[in-house]
Amino acid sequence: xxxxxxxxxxxIEKFTSDSKEAIxxxxxxxxxxxxxxxxxxxxxxxxxxxxxxxxxxxxxQLKTVATEKINALKEALDNKTVxxxxxxxxxxxxxxxxxxxxxxxxxxxxxxxxxFSRIGFNVSEGPxxxxxxxxxxxxxxxxxxxxxxxxxxxxxxxxPDILLRTHTSSVQVRYMENNKPPIRTISxxxxxxxxxxxxxxxxxxxxxxxxxxxxxxxxxxxxxxxxFFTTELFGKSEIRLRPSYFPFTxxxxxxxxxxxxxxxxxxRITKGTGWLEIMGCGMVDPNVLENCGxxxxxYSGFAFGMGIDRITMLLHQITDIRLLSENxxxxxxxxKSAL
Length: 339
Ligand code: DAH
Fold this sequence. Notes:
Blueprint: H1 2-14, H2 20-31, H3 36-43, H4 49-84, H5 104-117, E1 122-123, E2 129-131, H6 132-135, E3 162-164, H7 169-178, E4 183-192, E5 204-214, H8 219-234, E6 239-246, E7 249-258, H9 264-269, E8 275-284, H10 286-291, E9 300-307, H11 308-316, H12 323-326, H13 329-332
Parallel strand pairs: 1-4
Antiparallel strand pairs: 2-3, 4-5, 5-9, 6-7, 7-8, 8-9
Bound molecules: 3,4-dihydroxyphenylalanine.
Residues 167, 169, 209, 246, 249, 280-282, 303-305 line the site of 3,4-dihydroxyphenylalanine.
């Protein structure tokens, strides 16, 4: 038994390590509550009387050697920390912290919100899972209306009344149902359409809807508002409104901004015309106002809707819409510096 303890003493004397963990393990092994030292002390009463003295001295030696060894190694470790800076030197530069970045869609969405909030628009949101009334019927698109086919719809399971909204115009309806004019609101959000995924289209994307309802709102107010917007966002103030058709607005128009033809990219994105279509708009159809409980004789208003993904691609020269949902950090980290 005494020899065995001496072996342990030799082993401790040889032991060296600069690992905090290994030193602690050594302490637990010998000096811990369930450590060997306590085992040997417990053994003491079974040792024959003539060996008790030597046995006692040896386990005391074991205790001293272990305690000194552990203290020495700990001290060396602390000194090393200060001298060599290998461990936790406070003057070392800190570990780099990986900062995330805002998604380009969020950046552009926030820019759009910021611009409209400066002229009194608030922000409203609605559900992505919608019912037929808010997505279609209230917007002057009754059942069997051919214009429903303009937007290929995802229906939820077999219930044709529940669907993934195809546009944020559904939020117009909800907002008018729940608020009285004057109304000035923009509604950003994600929308879904059953379309083949390619570089130019996706089955989900983002829109911002705008709605302005008050007494005596005119088409001139609409144009002025949109011109303010394009000037602020693109730095381009020349716009044109081309007659178009949307069931929920009358008259309706497509908005083009004059982008210019300075670079090769300008030719590409404007197909050589210099003009770029950026949104749809119009005067809210009186039927829509009535469907939402607003007196169309007293109030009029305008609405507009645009795709955030498309505008993001324009502003950041992104040529494939799929990049916006693939979450490739090599793409996303390029937006690190943007707010
Ligand atoms: N909802 C239309 C779409 O998704 C966009 C739109 C056009 C919204 C005209 C409007 C509007 O509010 O007046 O294509």
